[in-house]
Amino acid sequence: MTPLRQRMLEDMSIRNLADNTQLSYLQQVSLYARHFHRSPEELGPEQVRAYQVHLTKTRKLAPGTVSIATAALRFLYSVTLKQNWAPDDIPMPKKPFKLPVVLSPGEVAHFLACVDSLKHRTILTTAYAAGLRVSEATHLKVTDIDSQRMVIRIDQGKGRHDRYVMLSPRLLEALREYWKVVRPKTWLFPGDIPGQPITRFAVESACQKAHRAAGIGKPITPHSLRHAFATHLLEAGTDVAASNCCWDIAA
Known about the structure:
Layout: H1 3-14, H2 19-36, H3 45-58, H4 63-80, H5 105-113, H6 118-130, H7 134-138, E1 145-146, E2 151-154, E3 163-166, H8 169-182, H9 200-214, H10 222-235, H11 240-243
Antiparallel strand pairs: 1-2, 2-3
Helix pairs in contact: 1-4, 2-4, 3-4, 5-9, 6-8, 6-9, 6-10
């Protein structure tokens, strides 16, 4: 590991950036350095601009992807290298706003019925019924399910915040049926490696397989189930902010 990479890693750790964000930023900076075959310390605003043009015009990457690379370079030069550049020296691309394609309740039910593994079906059902991100669902522990208060504890979700989300009676019933068969110990959805939770890749692969089996034309990902959850609550006239129970543990 180079001294610059080590220093950037320490800077991100000090600021408590999420692990996935740290890995992504390091990867983006590495790709940037490899593109010019030089250390980022030897490069300046003109090289950053040329790299953004390369990502946009040559590689034709989506604005969201270019934004990740831009955020990594902004952190590198403003925090780690402490360059006193103007914000416009590393402009952030504007991302177009697009409404997500949302599944109907019937489509969600049909999709979940096409998931052939009990564990995969239950974790995808949980992601939908509780409105969870896939990383939150994969890291649930058995002790996070509070059937007395009818809530699920989300430990260190996005932004490293703890919160509670609602636990519906139907989801609790599904989780109990799953527990009777699998009998998980620590992780609610254990992975193939002993002592480790199921991986995000495994959940996404199961989702793709069920999507093909369901024959639904709309795109389906674990995250689209989260969108469906929020939309279905709104259509039912529910206060989404109150229902999703974003209660900070410290509050």
